Amino acid sequence: MHHFRSHPEGQQELIIDGTERRIQRPVDNDVQREYYSGKKKAHTVKNNVIVGCADRHIKYLGDTHSGKKHDKKIADEEQTQLPEGSVILRDLGFKGADMGKGVTVIEPKKKPRNKCLTPQEKEENRQISARRVVVEHIISGIKRCRCLKDVYRNLKDDFDDQIMEIACGLHNLRNSMRNPIY
């Protein structure tokens, strides 16, 4: 699932977001620093996911990275290129990340220093957040798999990647068997 599965029509609305999962605290101090996430105040690993708004399927799952690494840096390293004509909704954590040629990017407006957002800008940010909440629901659907929600204790190489891929596949299967409500 590391490659982008393209939609037959080409143009689609997508949402990108990062997800963090707790891991067991490493013994080595250098490794501890690498995996410590200041945001979660714990040792974590991260993945970026891209989901489709219309079908709520996970279209892309990035590699697993250390919790210290920022979402945008992960996106830059993976060089995720979306199909031309796609529309991507993203949060400010991905500001400046290149998503490909001919891709429309929709992101909230950042509050300027020592100034306030206008009521119109606040309303636009609310509307973007309301559309982006879909990805948060999908990530919670992935984390139904308890080994992703709790502290991950397995030390086998690349097994954390495999668990995340299985959880995403189970989410897509569960989602495809559901009656459409949207």
From TrEMBL:
Cofactor: a divalent metal cation
Domain of life per record: Bacteria
UniProt entry keywords in alphabetical sequence: Metal-binding
Region of interest: Disordered: 1-20
Any one GO MF annotation of this record: metal ion binding
Biased composition (Basic and acidic residues): 1-10
Residue ranges constituting the DDE Tnp4 domain according to the UniProt record: 16-172
Stored InterPro entries: HARBI1_dom
Protein name: Transposase family protein
